[in-house]
Each structure stands twice: as C-alpha cells, then as structure tokens.
Amino acid sequence: MTNMTSPLDRRRHLTGMAFITPTMAVIIAILVYPILQSIVLSFGQSSIDGSEPYSFVGLKHYATLAGNERFWNSLWVTLVFTGLSIPLELAMGIGLAVLLNEHFRFKGIARLAVLFPWALPTALNTLMWRWMYNTDYGLFNAAALQSGIVDRPINWLGDETLAMGSMVVVAVWKTSSFMALIILAGLQSIPRELYEAGRMDGMTRWQEFREITLPLLKGPILVALIVRSMDALRTFELPFNLTDGGPVTATESLSLYAYKVIFDFIEFNYGAAIVVVQFLVIFAMSLLYILTLRNKD
Amino acid sequence: MKFTISALATAAALTALPGFAQELVLSIGSRGYGPAVERNIERYAAENPDVSIEWNKVSDVPGETRKLYVTGLTAKSPTPDIYAVDVIWAGEFAQRGWLEPLNGLLDEATIDAFNPSLLAASTVDGEVHALPLYADGIHFFYRTDLLEKYGLDVPQTWEEVLAASQTITEGEGNPQLYGFVSMWAKIEGLFMNWLAFANGNGGGFYDAEGNVAVNSPANIEATQFMVDLLHEHRITPDSILNARPDDARTLFQQGRAAFLMVQDFVHAPLSADNSPVAGKFDFTRVPYFEGHEDANSTTMGGWFLGINPNSDNKEAAADFLAHFTAQEQQLTAAVEDNRAPTIPGIYDNDAMKGNAVLAKFGKNYDYGVVRPSAGSGSKYPRVSEIMQLEITNALHRQKTVEEALNDAQAQLDALLSE
Amino acid sequence: MTKRPRFGLYALVILSVVISFLPIIWLVLTSLKTTEGIYAWPPQYLPDPFTLKNYINIFTNSPELLLYVLNSFIVALGCTVVALSFGGMAGYALSRLGMRRAGVLMVFILAVSMFPPVSLLPSLFQTFLNLGLLNTYTGLIIAHTGLFLPFTVWMLASYFATLPPEIEEAARMDGMGFFRIFWSIVIPLSWPGFVATGLIVFIFSWNEFPLALVLMTQNAMRTAPVGISLYPGEYAFPWETISTATVIAIVPILIITAIFQKQIVGGLTAGAGK
C-alpha cells in the first residue's frame, strides 16, 4: 500500500478489485470453502448432520488409508488408466493433428468428426460404448461371433484386464481430438520457412517432423498433457457409467472410490482423506510435467 | 399428473373453508411400484382434498436413490416427507435416526396388521420405523417346452439343474443357448443369489448359533458349485458376471436360456403378448442341494415406506402413509399388478382367488430367507459390499472359494466387532 | 506431392471419421429398431423393421427425458452468461489493470480448479440446502460457474493480453474511466475471445456430471447426462429408451459444434497457445 501515489493508480487498483470481486466470491464459495472443509474433515471425526461434534484425530484416517488395500487398488487403477490413456491420446493426437494439417477436400467434416467426441458428455459417450461392448447384444461381439473370430462372446467389460483396456479405448476415443486440436494450432504456427530450409538440407519428412515440428510443439503438448492428466486422474463418470468400477474393483478410480466411501458407506471423514490424497497426486503430477519439460529446454 | 392433483387439491382446499392446504412430498421410483403409486395418490386426494401430494419420482436404481436419501437426510432436509426404502436399508436408516418411529403416530392395530417378520426389518429398539409396502423374492423360472422335449422333470435340486442344463444344451447344439442365467454382476442381487445357493446347501450367513459363518464348509461347497457352473460346466454365459436382473431376463426371454433365477418382476414381461417365451415357461421355488429339501433358499426383498424425521408435517405424513399401505390399496396392487401384499389377511380375500401367479409366489415365500440387514444395522452396506466383493473374487477366480470366504469372514469379524 | 500418399491420406481421414462417428451411428441405428430387433440373434445391423416407435414413446410416455434437455439448456446458458461476465471482468483486471500478485492469483485460481469435483459434493450439498438452492436453476448455475470460472478467467486474460495496449492508453488520455474502457472498447474488440470461451463453457456445463448428479435431486430438474444415466431401473436397462433419449440429448450439441466448429477450435487452441 506504499507506492500507490497517483490517483490514477489508486483508481486502477480500485477498479481491479471491483472487477475481480465477483469471480473471487464465486470461486471461494464453490471451490475454496468446500476444499478447506474437506481438509479439515480429513483430520477429524464428525458427522455432517452435527449429531456427532467434530473431534480432531490427526492422521488417523490417513493411517487407515495407508493400510487399505482397496485404496491402493484405486490409486493404482487411476495411475494405470492415466499412464495408458495419456500416451495413447498423445500419439493419436499428434497423428490426427498432422493429418488435419494436410490439405484435402471435405476438411470441414473431418474436423467436425474430430471435435465431436470431445463435445459430447462423457456420461453419454460412455453409455454408447457400453452398448457397443455389451456381451450379448453389442456390436463388437456380434461382428466377432458372426465373422467366426471367436466362438464364445468376449466379455469386454467383465474381464479384469479387458475392462481396463475397454475403458482406456473410450477415453482415447473421446480426448485424442482435444490433443489433436491443441497440437494442430501449434503446427499451424510453425513458420513455413523452417520447412523450406529443411528441405534444402535434404531432410526426409520424418526428419522434418522429428527435428523441426516436434521441438516446436513442446509448449502446446505440455499444456495438453497437464490438462488431460488432471482430467484422467479425476476420472469419475467414465467408470461410473461404463463398469461401476468393476469387475471386482478392476476399474475403480480414486474419484469413484471416494464417491462410494462418502455416499454409500457414509464415511465423510475418511472420504475427505481420499480426495486430499488425490489432490496431492494431481498436484505432484503437474509439477513433474513442468519440471521435466523445463529441464529439457 | 402431479400438477393436476395439486391443482385439484388446491381448488378443493380453497372452497372448504376451515381447511389448511398441506403439501406432502413423496419420494418413490416411477417403475418399482408401477401404476399403484399414481392410483394411491389419486385415491388419497379424493378423500383428502386439503392435502396435496407431490410425487418426486426418484431413480429406480436403488443405489442411486440411496445416495440421494443419504445426502438429504444427513443434511436434515425436511423433504421428502414420506419416502420408500429398500428392506435392506430399513434397519440402518432407523438406527441412524433417519426414519421417524411410527408407534406414536399410528395406532397399534394399524401396525399389527402387517406381517411381523417383515416388520422386524424396520424395528429398532422395539419401535417400528417403516411399513412394508410390498415383498418380492427370487424364483426359479424354466422353459416348459424344453423340459418336455427332453422328457425332463422340473428340477428341484441344483444337481438336477446341472444335469438338465447339460442335456438341453447338448441336445440343442446351439452355442447361443445357455443352461442357467441369473444376476451375478457385483450388485446386491449377487449377494441374494449367494444366500440362495448357500442356504440351499444347509449353510447361510449365520450358523445355527447366530454367529457369522460365511466360510462354513457348506457355504464353500455351494459357492464352489456356482464357480463350477460358470467355469467348469460352462452352462452359464460369461456375461452372467455383469448381468443385472433384466439382462438375465432378456436372455431368457429371447429363448437363449433354459433356466432363469431372478425376482418376481420378470413374470409380467415374460408373459407379455410379444414375448417369444410367453406360454412356454413356468416357475418354481429356488432349487436346493440334494438332501436339503427344507432349506429356506428363496432370498426375499421388498420395499418399505417411512417418514422423514425432519418433515414439517409428520401427522399428515403418517395419515397418508397409513392410507397408502392400507389393505384396500394393497389388494388392488396385488390383483392388478401382482405385487405381493405385506398384510397376511389379503391372501385370503376373495378377489385374490383368481391370481394363481401371486399365490404361487406366496408359496415360495414360505421358504424365504432375508438378508442380514436387521442384524448389522448401519453396517449393512459394508457387510453387503464385503460379500459382493469376495464372491466376485471367487467367481472371477481371483481367489479360491475358500480364500475368498475366509477373507470375507475375517473382514466381517473385524467390521462387526468395531 | 505424389499420388500414393494422397490415397493413404484419404484412407486415414476416412478411417478417423468412421471411428469418430461409429458409436453415434450405432446408437442412432439402435434407436430405430424395435425392442425385439435390438435383442435379436443373429444381430441386426440395420433396423428391420425400421420404426420411429421409440421416439414417439419418448414424447408420449417419458416426457421427462425432454425436460432433461431443457434443463441442460437453461443451466448451460445461465452458466455461460454469468461466467463470461464475471470472468471477463476478472480476466481484464488480472491482465490489464496492473494488479499486484496477479500471477499468484492466476496460479491460485488454477490450483483450486485441480481439486476433484467429487470432494466438493458433501459441503456444497449442505450449503445449498441451507440456502434453498437445491433443485433450482440458480443453484446449479452458480455451482457450474464456480467450476468453470478458472478456465474462463485464464482464457479471457490471455485473450486480453493479445490486444494492443495503445488503444486503451489513448482512451485513457481522452479521460475515459476504466469501466467505460472495458465496456465500450475492450469487450467489442474481444468478441471472438468471448464467443470461443462461451461456447466451450456452454459445452462444459452441458456435460458436467458430478455436481448435476447431487445438486438436482428432483427428477424434473435433472440435466440430460444425469437424467439419462439414471434412467435405468432397479432391474432393467431399457436400451431402446436410453439410446433414443441419448440421440435426442446430443442433437443440440451436434448442431452447436457443427455451426461453431471454427470458434470452438480457435478457443481451445488459444487456451493452450501461450
């Protein structure tokens, strides 16, 4: 408050405060307050209806968490899901972006096709896929059985390994487009001269891609990776609608587990500890990305 | 509909001078109790013009509805005033103080008319917390035409079910035809299924002394039989592991299974005009293992109606509740919609004479077994979760049956001694 | 360029388009089949007989499925308007009004948006209940605004940063106040940014699931993704109804995406372009 000398600066400052107040009010009410409440809840024992007053229990819930097989399973499921889907999405995204960067006819339709899976609600996308995966009446098994590839229906969502694979496919289908669009914008901002120079040096198209395109795409790729990893680490409606976390707990993500703990088993404090850990994982992942990509520069 | 009823009620309330217009909110699914809900509301509105009933159609997926109630009740929401609870939540909700005790609100005669073993599910500390609306249970459906074709009797034991399935599937030689289908997805229905198998072998959730004994030799044997049906004899489709009741019903209805074990509700769609198996199926009690013909293997379910303790209109809610579950309403639901009544006297009513299906359901309920929800109270959701998870582990052969049930036993011991 | 790669290119394009649309095509085909056709063996790839019965049934027997779409529309529109108004002002303050610690605030806004939405539910539910905001459009609009404001602020702040500062400086020389500069100069200049951000926020809100699941407890107030997801019954999963309802619910998004695809793509890529 010391260097606010000129009236213009003061007015600028007041306008700034006024402009930012509504946003901060909403963010504090909808995000910050519930987050703080979660953190407080995770260190205590209480009931949300107030019949059991809050008592501080320290790290008790975190200790329970550390010894709970199902928690570790859901953390593992979340990491495997993220670890499988993000690289695939990235590869598909780069491929699609390179494709869309070419010149061809009906580009509008192609771009719409890429955009469409992203624009639809995950919950409904998932229902569509669940229907195609259906063991007895689904498209995939109908085709597989009729063509004679298999003689017994494949249990896409009922087998531990396949279910995770099936879930990853839905995620990749939906979000490769998002990656592609961000990378495409990066591609389009690369000056043509660089390629012309490369061609004069006798580079092949693959060399061009590796040595000119990829390094310049680092920024957009980083952003896409962070945004998508955050989403993948919080994935909820995908297992909710596709498998309900099954078979057994093979696709039970952290968010789904937390939801079940909070609303099925009615253990708010323990559930709060899960989401706090989840937040820390997301935060650590974001930092990791930023640090690795910064170091490589 | 809702609006017309409220409008009528409001109009009526305005003309009746001393009346107070009261509004009650009722939460119940739109398909579970079928057309009876609307009918009951209309009947009540006709007799009580000063009360308007708003029907909040909650999800018909019990798990979703449960979460909805839990969020509302923990936050002390005053609505709904009256709500439907699954029999397995009744004890838990009563214990958590989420259901108003009815003994002070209704006279004893009204409460005493109900089937006492059903009332037990919602009785905590000697007080009844919800009234049973209708009962259901699992039954064993079979294809009469297929049994006839191969000269087979209706199977009574699981051994006979297996033999008949093998005869039929081998005889038909159709890879799209399975022997036995049921609901083995990781849902409450799986636990119901397991109880049917386990009790059918002289086992069960509790031993004779009432201690939890899920890893008893009889239970291990019965569970192993389930695993073998799927993996060794392969008379069930792999998709049974994600089948919910209606998935199993659909397979059976499309003529793709000889035997089906699910709840009452399938009878109506199976016998509908456009059903390929209409007139070609019948049902009997849930099978048992050889030597256990007295086993109580029909796992029972059902829905209750209770009052929210935070309601602003408990008196009015109680009046509505009594009317909704009264003999007259239940009789219509029984005759017209095949809903099993919860007031024993109704079965003797003359209007029931023509309903052979319901009478047969009722006979199967003589072999009824209920889930351990009253005994475990607020811990029941976790009890059920442990059982569903470990049975699924066994069915997926992630663990041997013995390991799975031993693990379940250990977890249950720890949970119930907490 | 030679001919061969062109052929390969078109093959890849067609493959991508087919894969993208496959689930939707299969869903539309399902919705045009009879119940028997859906569960038939051998499977029906094309509807035989073709029927509009499922659509007629939805309009006559399950009008709540249409209500879900209307609810989604009202909430998404409301959220978009509020988020753009609040986020526009905040973005301008953070990028142009020389606020101290603007960078810290931006990072703070981003960090709180990383928290899993599921964790907000118990607390939000109780607050909304106490304020009477459950089952109201206002309530869900505020909740969605909170959820998507961080994105809006970041998008618009980075858009404002691309505007040449000279115009605003000139306006200030003429004695214009900050609010008037924002209202009559910055907003008109930033229309493309607002349109792109608004479209994306609209889609986000239309698609949002966990909060819409918990904050709208009455059937009549549910949004399309939640209502359709919860439509299956205790015993049944009626695919003929669910496929039809899903088709109806995605048509608005399909139309919006098709009309505004340039703006949406522009917005998505601008957000990442910095």
TrEMBL record, chain A:
It is found in: Cell membrane. This is Carbohydrate ABC transporter membrane protein 1, CUT1 family. It comes from Marinovum algicola. It comes from the Bacteria. Keywords: Cell membrane, Membrane, Transmembrane, Transmembrane helix, Transport. The keyword Ribonucleoprotein does not apply. The chain crosses the membrane at residues 14-36, 75-100, 112-132, 162-187, 208-227, 270-291. Its main location: membrane.
UniProtKB/TrEMBL annotation, chain B:
Pfam families: SBP_bac_1. Keywords: Signal, Sugar transport, Transport. GO terms for cellular component: periplasmic space. Its main location: periplasm. It comes from the Bacteria. Residues 1-21 form the signal peptide. InterPro entries: Bact_solute-bd_prot1 (IPR050490), SBP (IPR006059). The keyword Transport applies. The keyword Cell division does not apply. It is found in: Periplasm. Belongs to the bacterial solute-binding protein 1 family. This is Multiple sugar transport system substrate-binding protein. It comes from Marinovum algicola.
From TrEMBL, chain C:
The chain crosses the membrane at residues 7-29, 65-92, 104-125, 137-160, 181-206, 241-260. Signal peptide: none annotated. GO terms for cellular component: plasma membrane. Residues 69-260 form the ABC transmembrane type-1 domain. It is a multi-pass membrane protein. It comes from the Bacteria. The keyword Cell inner membrane does not apply. GO terms for biological process: transmembrane transport. This is Carbohydrate ABC transporter membrane protein 2, CUT1 family. Belongs to the binding-protein-dependent transport system permease family. It is found in: Cell membrane. Pfam families: BPD_transp_1. Keywords: Cell membrane, Membrane, Transmembrane, Transmembrane helix, Transport. InterPro entries: BP-dep_ABC_trans_perm, MetI-like, MetI-like_sf. Its main location: membrane. CDD domains: TM_PBP2.
